[in-house]
Amino acid sequence: MAAGAMEIVYVYVKKRSEFGKQCNFSDRQAELNIDIPPNPELAEQFVARNPVDMGIQCSTSMSEHEANTERFEMETRGVNHVEGGWPKDVNPLELEQTIRFRKKVEKDENYINTIMQLGLVMEHCIKQNNAVNIYQEYFDDEEEVEVTEEAPAAKTINVFRDPQDIKRSATHLSWHPDGNRKLAVAYSCLNFQRAPENMSQESYIWDLENPNRPETVLKPSSALVTLEYNPKDSHVLLGGCYNGQIACWDTRKGSLVAELSTIEFSHRDPVYATIWLQSKTGTECFSASTDGQVMWWDIRKLSEPTEVVIMDITKKEQLENALGAISLEFESTLPTKFMVGTEQGIVISCNRKAKTPAEKIVCTFPGHHGPVYALQRNPFYPKNFLTIGDWTARIWSEESRESSIMWTKYHMAYLTDGAWSPVRPAVFFTTKMDGTLDIWDFVFKQCDPALSLKVCDEALSCLRVQDNGCFIACGSQLGTTTLLEVSQGLCSLQRNEKNMASSVSARCRGQGALRLLS
């Protein structure tokens, strides 16, 4: 308010009769109103109680309070840096004006003195860099031999929930190939003809540091069952749709599909598995579906597949006899081989370079009573591979086709997914329909999982292990993706673990199978 503004005064008016009796306060000496002397007769009547029982509460009194805090939303924004610092009378786009201004500044004595002082500092830093390589790894070639004594453990780092009101299952996960700071999640409803009306078809890419809102929204024509990052180009993603089509995204171009296969040349059933091939161009991939076909694609021309293999183990190339494909496995060190897990519980080993279509199916590994939901070779011993199906997890060797060399007992809950640890040859992970994540270490403990963790109340549908083995992402039936960090002992190579894992596998092949859970 300004200095000379009018003062506002309000007068309260009240009758004197409403005030009550007036109080008059004054100082005076203290007065003794009553004095009761002690009575000895009452003391004689006093009886002491001995012993005395009294209940007391030893624990600290505590109270529970709940507070609903407001969720803090973060958003990533870009900043465009341009050349600045020029005086107003100098146009930085005019070359002559900038050259003239530079010459003027360079003639200034302060400029020369400043450059001389900064030059000495820079010279000192350059000499330091030339003398010591601060990035040198002195013991990079040495194998880790440290044995950790800590008990296996895991903790939840973050939770990413499906932002849609109508919840869908998280059916597939894929880590960003550069730095693993992002996670692509495919969402769909796999219940045939039971998808709710107005259910969203979108899938998302999440930034691990921002669980409130997905960083990128992918908008397919049909819900995605599988989604994979291109290991050679992190902007490109490959998706397998519920309607059988193959879709490709380039995140630099937005949320819409960049390339899409035509309906007539696509799968007839949902695409349950897609894998990128280790090719020079980084554009080749292949897919599998329960229609019994494995198709090869080149995303530069995604209209139709470059090759099709029918999963007919009778080798008659008849689609009506084909086994439905659920999972795929391709190891870059074995470029001519690939493996297919079927919904009939059989694993089919194939040779891509065979001369005839019938010769492409090499052999089969029967062992599960239901669909083979996961199939992966051991990253340290590619001849050994893990399968997840029905109520068991099984480890196989290509040298022993009659039976798996190791397996777990039949669990009470159905197994839904599994994967090897990328850093420890004896460790693998499994998820179950009761919401439990089991971590197995068959060198350390054969009778039970090394760690069993209740991740959520609903069924877990998929999992994916980060390249360094420290982080695990688990997707659930209600679209919730939980990010967990395992203890250092579970993601660090132990002493002689490679030799011990190899000897256990060799013993199982030579003397019969080992049941992990008896």
Mean pLDDT: 84
Uncertain stretches of 5 or more adjacent residues: none
Write down how many β-strands occur, each being a DSSP E stretch of 2 or more residues.
Answer: 29
CATH superfamily of the domain at 163-511: YVTN repeat-like/Quinoprotein amine dehydrogenase
> Can you tell me the CATH class of the domain at 163-511?
Mainly Beta
Under the CATH scheme, which architecture of the domain at 163-511 would be assigned? 7 Propeller
Main structural class: mainly beta
Quickly count the helices. 4
Family: Belongs to the dynein intermediate chain family.
Main location: cytoplasm
InterPro entries: Dynein_IC (IPR050687), WD40/YVTN_repeat-like_dom_sf (IPR015943), WD40_repeat_dom_sf (IPR036322), WD40_rpt (IPR001680)
GO molecular function, one term: dynein light chain binding
